[in-house]
Amino acid sequence: MAQTQMFSTFQRDNLEDPPIPDTQPWVPFRTRLDFEVAELAHEAALSQPQIDRLINLLHRSKQDSESFTLRNYKDVRNTWSAISHRLTPFTKQIIQVPYDGVDQEFTLYYWDLWDWVCDLLRDPYIGPQFTFDNQCLSKFDGNTFVRFIDEPWTADRFWEAQVSVDHAKPLAFILYADKAKLSSFGREKGYPVIARIANLPASIRNGEVVGGGRVVAWLPIVKDDPSKSGKPKFTDFKAAVWHESFKLILKCLRLKRKHGGWVECWDKLQCLFFPFVPILSADYEEQCVMSLICGVMGKFPCPICLVPHDELHSLLDTWPLRTCRDSVRLLRKARRKTTKAKQEKKLKSQSLRDVENSLNLSKLLDVFRALCFDRLHTHHEGLWGKHLWIELQKWINETGRQAATMIDEGFAAAPRWRNLNHFKRVMGISFADGTKYEDILKLIVFVAHDVLDPEVHEQGYLLLQCIRAHLDVDMFAALEVHTMDTLAAGRAALGEFSRLMDKYMSESGSELKNWNFPKHHLAVHLFDDIEAKGVTRNFNTKPNEKAHRPLKKSYQLQTNFKQVADQILRADHWSLVSAWIRYRLNDLDDYNARKEASALGGSDLDSHADDTAPDERVTPRLESTGSFHIKLGSRQRISSINAIQQAHLKDPAFHQFHIKINHFLNTIPIITRNGHVALELGADTVTEFRYLQANFESMVDFQTSKDYLRCSPMFHNAPRYDSVIIRTQDGIIFGHLIFIFMCLVGDASYPMALIHPCDVPIPNGPLKDKHLGLWRVRAQPRRKSEFVFAESIIRGALLLEDRSQPGDFFVVDSVDTDMFLHTKLHKDSHMY
Hints:
Helices cover 38% and strands 20% of the residues. The protein is α+β, with helices and mostly antiparallel strands. A hairpin with a 7-residue loop joins strand 18 (704-712) and strand 19. Helix 13 runs antiparallel to helix 16. The longest helix is centred in the last third of the chain and has 36 residues, at 564-599.
């Protein structure tokens, strides 16, 4: 049913009263202390001798009234095993796949997917977080309602599933598979399959707590045989082993695709659910296995559409989409051919393998529609990291050694920014981490703009334009919420990138074949995937790649390096059970705290005992300013204006500090309503702060975001003065923080900041600013520093100085998606 709500009251929080928690969630551990010690030992991956030593130490301590009953490692292990049955255990099964007429046996470990999701549906904490109905959400933009898409249930594929299961609820699974290197040198590998539930919000689904990603299978790995490797027959055999394994994994869901399955949920109500798999998250190589195409060497190497290999460089053309019906029909026709050569020829017409696809399941799973654009491997580690970046390095190195040095120096000089890697060198270094490639992409245009001269290095400069266009596409791909407008803008950015790349290929002499690779082409499907399945964080492989780390840790610290699958999976299951108990323990503690506060006349049981976010707890001593927007921290001693001037005699920004602050205060009506203000030079009226937290509403997802800003002469052994966006009477400007303080005026304190404004008009900027999408701002002379109220700071900003024009700075719009949209909307307006 369509609903219209005021945006100020719109919320998705579940308003149900939380259930009364289990008072002993640690059972069958004999006490809570037993569980917490075993939990700590498991999290630390302690060895058997270490656990025995820990237990001996605890027994020597009798200070706590709570009994400690664990005796040794064996007792810990037995108790873990006893409690593990609370959640769905894994199954071990042998599968057989023929090769040369002889059945080959492999061991498969897997969990029952249906039982696992039923565990979540029955959970009184996770169950209420599920969303079962499609939502078509729109936000009023001042003129009209604009649809926006974020979670899978706001996108088209979820709607299709719901329409097809009238009077029932769709239950959506996200599946990921990829090999993981367990040993340091990659000799020992595992093959986990990770599942997530698309009905849960991204904050839970992509997390590591109960309700987040779960290893649901451990696929067999076919050992390479030098005499067989690379041959089509052996490659088909490995694919057959994979699909035979997945057939077993999906069996429990396949049985319910026609009539669904009834589940008694957390609220004791029976609901009918129909499972389906709208998203397969995988890198390109794994997508080839899932779709059973021949991959890079095939005539049609895209797993989603039938683009010819020689047309992969073009991003503007569209090609017929692959369908399950066509692939099944083609395989049947090929197998009716009388010779192997004719069979192969028929299959090559769509680059398919002669293997039955276990992912072609009507209603449950359409493999070609479920495969998704993967931002991590396609953009950061693929098109950018392995191609555009290599190509740019070539042009820079050809320019000369000084050019490469300038790039490294530019990255080293870039101001530090939260969640952005800081590099001392990037040239000549190969990174294995996709996040590092992403962060290089975010800064490279701002660093390299003056290294490649458009008159001298015409092709290299054109490549830099291509990279800027690619950065725009990647930032649109990163948006946490998409509207129809941002989708249209993203498609336009992709078209501009394609146009510039076509120009670069034709003018640089670069052969087309060098750009005919799948990871160049796959962006064609990016925005269609977002419309169908929600934003890219729903199907990006990054959260799943992160899940490899604990598996590797378990291998290195909790196995004997023999028959490791059983040991790793047992440790992973214990981790899940441990998180399940910890979730309940935390809830019990909060419940008891609220109950105690209520008994003492404090807040009621439905309020939160501590609403402080985890990030706030680790910031320096926050000083409340009476506003949610701004918080100050890292308090220094109270001082006088005279002392501040004396401490900064060499800094022009502090010249006439006394006169300027009195003048500023006397321009504020609310301060001067009782007469003229005159702060005394020697009175202790100023308290310096070196940290500022700015809370602001993100333009992307309409949620509260935070910037953690520093204004300190020494932060981690280096000065750090961050930049900010400031709202003034004349408009919105950028500026650098110089001094943050609380000023005492009479009986009232006002949080203020001394800033170095960057608001000098620039009538005609360089042409390269337009070519490279650069937003240039120019700083006033430092002596023209200004005072502002801290409340006027909107958020932080990253400004990178133009080496070729000291005093000019570039607004780095790629630091996050909110800043990206800010610049896209206002760069060409008079607002800034």
